Amino acid sequence: MGLALVGAVAGPQWDPVPVSDHLVPATSDTTVHGASDPGAVGEVGEFEVRETPVSIPLDGTEVGGLLRQPLDAQGEVLGGRPGLVYVHGAGTGKSTEAFVESATALASAGVVTLVPDKRLDTYTTRDRDYVAMAADYERSVDLLRATDGVDADRVGVYGESEGTWIVPIMQAQDPAIATTVLVSAPVVPPRQQAAFAVDNYLRNTGVPDQVFRAIPRAVGMQLPGGGFDYADFDVRPWLEQQTAPVLMAYGAADPSMPVEQGARQVIADTAVGGDDAPVTVRFYADANHGINVPTPTPGGGTEMHLHPDFARDVATWVQGMPGTADAEPRIAGAQPNQLYLASAVPQPLWWGNGDIVVGGVLVGVGLLVAGPLVWIVHALVRRVVRPRSAVPAPRLGRGLRTALAGLGAGSVATMVALVVYLLAVAQLALDYQRDDLVVQGGWVGVRLLGVATAVAAALVLRRVVDGRAARRAALAAGADTGPDGEGPAPAAGETPDHVVVARGWPAHLTFWCVVVGSLALLLTLAYWGVYQLGI
Description:
This protein has 13 helices and 13 strands. By secondary structure, the protein is of the alpha/beta class. Helix 1 (2-9) crosses helix 13 and helix 11 (400-430) packs parallel to helix 13. The relative contact order is 0.13. Residues 483-495 have low confidence and may be disordered.
């Protein structure tokens, strides 16, 4: 109960707000209407596509890229075409591997596309500067505007996932950007999106309710080693400066994005400035984060490929400007079903610094190893140097050695079991699978180990209290408590285990190392919810 209370007050709870007012698409048909010149809107597959590697100069370096241009019947580059520069999502991104289906399909419909390589020398897990990244991608916009066959006044930007935090910066700083396509846009800050995604993934795996308390404690804390300042980046001030039309696209089967909330927020924020930045929203049935859907293969299996309507809609929207910018329906496609709002993540208090969390575990494990190791070394040295010494060998009292070993081993075993459990659940969540034996049975197993460890701690405490009480009784009776004051001096062949707690400095050191080390691990386990009792 004490550990449960400590775990409850040591950090924030998790209580996301349900979505009560859902977006309702006007129609399930995602087709984009209202093209200003329908005859100028090409269809996907209408043109042959030429792929040309390019080099894009940046400050202090350069990156490669892949330019895709539509060709006429004579194999010449079409003139006066709109263009799109692609902005990568999280992780690495080679132009030869990223956006292949999308960029090729749009080019085959008459849109010139440029996919640059992602700059990685200034991009790490800990440090990312979205404003600087926007400046880098702007170089690709300049290159595309100067490309043969491209109408420089009709060049837009296409961003996916993390890239949708960058695209609004580009458009705000370069109002000449004609269109912006935001695909799977989180819109909310990265920390909020991460908590939202973890919540959704965990719900899909069917984990016990107690596990959800770990979300704000993991996502809300300052991560070990520092950095990650971009976790609280807010794109809304940039959205309020938009002047170009916006096309938003989401996969209705994407659990990682707040699809309804994101669409509402972009519609609201782009209207703040009063400039012409109309928003068109499309939800694609059964599509995932990359707007891909399972597609049958000749061998009877399935592969993930771009939703068949997506490239058509983007191509029509881009080529049909300005008529398609505000054409009805504004919101169309599959019915989205966002269960909870992505909101500010509560910040942990005592364990708010990840270095403290990791340090506590390392210190705990270090003490558990150090104490017994010192005792073993002392015993080996004593055996070699003073094999027949009259000084009694270090010892722990009767029953204390077993209880102490159970406490130390149990705390480590529970910590290891918790880590293994969380990794197994994470793998299931990423694979979007359920396994009740793992998520339910595994949690029960972790908690049972935790209870057994708490029992061992209680036995240690009881043995110490009993030993102290026996010692006080012996002193009150006038008995000799022995040379170290821990118990009565033994008669020949007699072992006073009923009053001995620890004898000799190695035993005392081991006792306190195990107790303090285990306590550090138990408090950490309580923080992560192993000892929850509904409080």
